[in-house]
Amino acid sequence: MCAQISQSDGESIFADLDDEGSEREEEISPRKRQLRLYRRALGEQWRVLSQDNLVVASVITLLFFITMAITAPFVAPYGQTERLTADDGTIAQWEQPFWYGGEGGYVLGTTAEGYDLFSQLLYGSRAALLVGLLAAVFVAGIGTMVGLVSGYYGGRVDDALMRLVDFMYGLPLLPTVILLVALAGPSLVNLILAIIVLQWRTTARVIRSQALSLRERPFVKAAKVAGASDRHIILKHLAPNVLPLTFLYGAFSIAWAILTEAGVAFLGLGDPNHVSWGTMLQSARSYNALTHEAWWWFLPPGICIALVVISGFLIGRGYEEITNPELQE
Amino acid sequence: MGRAQFVVRRTLQLIVTLWAVATALFLLFRSMPGDPTTYIVDPSLSGEARERLIESYGLNEPLHVQYMIYIQDVATLSFGQSFHSNRAVRDIIALYLPRTLLLMLTAFFFAYLIGITVGIIAGWRRNSDFERRSVFIALIARSFPDFWVGLIVLWIFGAWLDVIPMSGMRSGGIQYDSYWNVELWLDTIWHLIAPAAVLGFYLMGYPLLLMRNSMLEVLSQDFIEVCRARGLKERSIMFKHAARNALLPIVTAGAVALGYAVGGSVLIETVFGWPGMGREMVNAVLRRDYPVAQGTFFIFAMTVILLNFIADLAYGFLDPRVTYD
Amino acid sequence: MTTLLDVDDLEVYYETEDGPAQAVDGVSFSVEEGETLGIVGESGCGKTTLAKAIIGILPHNGYVNAGRIQFRGENLTELSDEQRRRRKWEEISMIPQSAMNGLDPVYTIREQINETIETHRPGTDRVESNRIVDEMFDLVGLDPDRADEYPHQFSGGMRQRAMIAMALSLDPSLILADEPTTALDVIMQDQILNRIEGMQDEVESSMLVITHDVSVVAETCDRVIVMYAGQIAEEGPVEEIFGNPYHPYTIGLKRAFPDIRKSNQDLMSIAGHPPELVDPPSGCRFAERCPLATEVCRTEYPPEMEFGELRTYCHHADEIDEEFRPVADRAETWEQTEAAEAKNAKATEATK
Ligand SMILES: Nc1ncnc2c1ncn2[C@@H]1O[C@H](COP(=O)(O)OP(=O)(O)OP(=O)(O)O)[C@@H](O)[C@H]1O
Ligand SMILES: [Mg+2]
Question: Of the residues A130, A190, A251, A325, which has the fewest C-beta atoms closer than 10 A?
Fold first, then answer.
């Protein structure tokens, strides 16, 4: 992971939020206040992020694929594993796209088994996004919580959690996911679980070092002196301050999770009940689409994967620039 | 704490981590549903042969005894025999691991050579077109799945232009009496080029981006300005001073990345039909050949752990400022 | 005496988001052989920028917009990069403002000094360059055996001295010392200053001492330049500048430092801040903070006035002796500036 985060020792982006206790604040419930705190933090993030055209383009790309995933059943002309027959009653195998001279009017042609590639591509976005987004949310969430707890409490808790993280770092990503998925059975849920189990380590380590330094900041010390509970300090004072980092790692996790899903599916360990871009590539390879030069079979899924992954990286990079002032020119 | 003590402590930590991974593997394979013996002893065997095998592995013993036997086996890297080929897992690893390393190290060497050099120049010429282009290319390289790029390369250069082999590590029918046959090596290199290039391209993005960021950080430090004031030659400032300082974090990150990259060889080996350990592990998993799966997996994990270890030690030797406390 | 360095109408700008910042604007002065010239002024007035322009290490967004830097009769700004590089350190060396961090952390100090010597004098054998290192270490009061250590093994003050040793190693004709004593305690400051003075006699080079500490100048320099917001306010011999200056800024600056001879003087700084360097005021840049400012000060650049050996850039310099000097020590005088009035107005606003 190329994220080398070092937040400057100066004030945090949110330092002012804590000092703004105007009288009105006390009238609203603490819950509302907290909500507002997070919302302001996110709003601020978005304001900075949206100045970067690449980030905006990435968000639009992600939204496009999310829409694709939601609307797939309505847009897709055929089912994902619906065997198509040609006019003469035979299975419509190896059909070329209609704009390439193929028969049957298939947008991207058909597979060797007679499935519609365009429909598969649309449905494939569901697996990718499901894995990418779910894994990202949990990876970032678990990593942040572990990191905060570890960094805030220090001592034994920190030691224990960090030894666990060290152990996790001893596991190679892809082989471990392969092993877990193979033993637990190939399904999207197991795959997501395997990715989460392996990926939270990075976030946890980074957030912990951040929490270690935050713990020494005056506003945290003040809250402690004022008798705030640990839970309160972690959720209200520490969490909003590490939020940009959480998002950074969340964005990167989308990219990694999708790459991992595609890879595992390509190896033949994909969920047999769901077509994904990875399984499309796998069948393209096993049916020798390469030597058939059926590029409409294996080009589009790869491009889709790359687009989603690039979007994840670029959003991450945008965040990296927020969190790492040295990168700002 | 002195350097020696640090090395000792870090070595102990290494052993503990290896032990933890081995234990996790043990628990993982024993906790699978069904008869645990099926994960160690080929279920297709029957009767006496089966009993004998179970006994020879100590599978009739209580769990803690089994665990002790298992740990001893792991310590001697003996993971039993393949269900599929009946060969010792150790021999299988000895056969496949060097092939994986050949591919991986070649790709890694060129990826880091090119990535670091381009990263140095990109950092040195910040805000230039060169910098923007190289960062863009690095992002692209990291975003396209390497196995997919492999497919495209096979399609264009293999199926279409027919200049690279479609699969494998050697052409059939080559006669050789020893491994030091020139023809054999040329043939292997011919097979190696495409997978190494694709893998190298994928791996290149990381050192490139890392080196660029590190250069930017070093270049903003005061001593660089003094180097310029000292009238040193531009090339000397760029490489001997800026890059030398910027390289420190990359060496560590690179060693760690190499460990993980070896595990990532699974995909590229599958695409190019490279008969390496990654592909062997996937095949073993798909065939439910558990001894081989377990053994190859442990080697992958060990690579990661060892390289993490080496990275930690290397840092202390490269950076005179490192103190061990 | 011959002129070593002659800076003529120099403009150094930094490219910034809001446009070029005129960090040095129309500065002219010269340094004679063997002379020590001081440059004083508030933080941000362009002292370091000036030094970097002279030696030729402006950062990537800085550039010489106009003017000449004549060194031994050659205009440095017209030299090729390679010619310029050869003159660095060999002819002009510097003790940078951040001398403590001026050494590369991954090489020993000896390696770095040797490298400098061997770059400029190819063919010097190792024995000879090692001898120079030892000699320089002796000169700055460091144990030559410690030259084989890494910078991080030195204390801050030792690093600063090592930096000075490096600056002297090629026997340059001009040394630019940028705040050579900041970050040091008073005793160490004194030691270093004495060393610098002593060494200068020994190696007979000229020196440009940059500082915002008036006492350093008084101790080490022959002549002084007072800079304000990228321009020269006043220039002259040390005794004149501190004894009988003609620029209101110099007078105000003097008041900002304690003078033990007049113990009950109100110690006060000048209200306000220097102007923005992007698009600065067209007239005198000090006008806003000057008790003597009139309309002409705000619109027209002040002419050069001479008072003996003093050079002063002020519209009202000839009124100083009669009208300003007698009241210059009073706090009320300094209340009558635009900046002070704005500040007071703001203060009363706040109390309301
Ligand atoms: N790289 C840069 N880019 C833009 N502006 C700069 C840069 N370096 C300096 N400046 C600006 O140029 C002006 C002069 O800076 P300079 O460092 O020369 O001041 P100085 O007199 O040395 O101050 P100090 O006493 O604090 O060292 C300042 O206003 C500063 O903000
Ligand atoms: Mg300065």
Answer: A325
> What DSSP line would sit under A16-80, residue for residue?
HHHH---HHHHHS-HHHHHHHHHHHHHHHHHHHHTT-HHHHHHHHHHHHHHHHHHHHHHH-SS-T
Q: Is C14 in the pocket of ligand 1 (CB under 6 A)?
A: yes
**Distance (Å) from the alpha carbon of A80 to chain B's nearest alpha carbon:** 21
Domains of chain C, each with CATH number or no CATH? 3-226 (3.40.50.300), 247-351 (no CATH)
Is the minimum distance from the CB of C225 to ligand 1 under 6 angstroms? Answer: no
- Nearest chain B Cα distance for residue C319, angstroms: 44
Cross-strand bridge partners of residue C63: C13
Contacts (Cβ under 8 Å, ≥6 apart) of B180: none
Residue C27 forms beta bridges with which residues? Answer: C10
Q: What is the pLDDT of residues C119-170, one digit of tens each?
A: 999 989 999 999 999 999 988 889 999 999 999 999 888 898 899 899 989 9
- Residue C255 CB–ligand 1 contact under 6 Å: no
| Nearest partner of A307 among A88, A118, A93, A121, judged by Cα | A121
CA distance B20 to B305: 11
Q: Per-residue DSSP letters for C257-298?
A: S--TTSTTSPP-PPSS-PPPSBS--SS-TTGGG-TT--HHHH
Domain membership flag for residue A124: yes
- Residue of A1, A2, A58, A168 to mutate for B, most B C-beta atoms under 10 A: A2
Domains belonging to chain B, first-starting first, are: 3-75 (no CATH), 97-318 (1.10.3720.10)
**Residue C137: partners with Cβ closer than 8 Å, 6 or more residues away:** C143, C144, C146, C147, C162, C165
Which residues does chain B have within 8 Å of residue A171's beta carbon, measured at their own beta carbons?
Answer: 21, 301, 304
The domain that contains A103 carries what CATH number? 1.10.3720.10
Whole-model pTM? 0.83
Encode pLDDT of B266-318 as tens digits.
Answer: 899 999 999 999 999 999 888 888 888 889 999 999 999 999 898 888 877 77
Rounded Cα distance, A142 and A140, in Å: 6
The DSSP code sequence of C138-168 is HHTT--GGGGGS-GGGS-HHHHHHHHHHHHH
Angle between helix A239-264 and A188-214 (nearest 10): 150
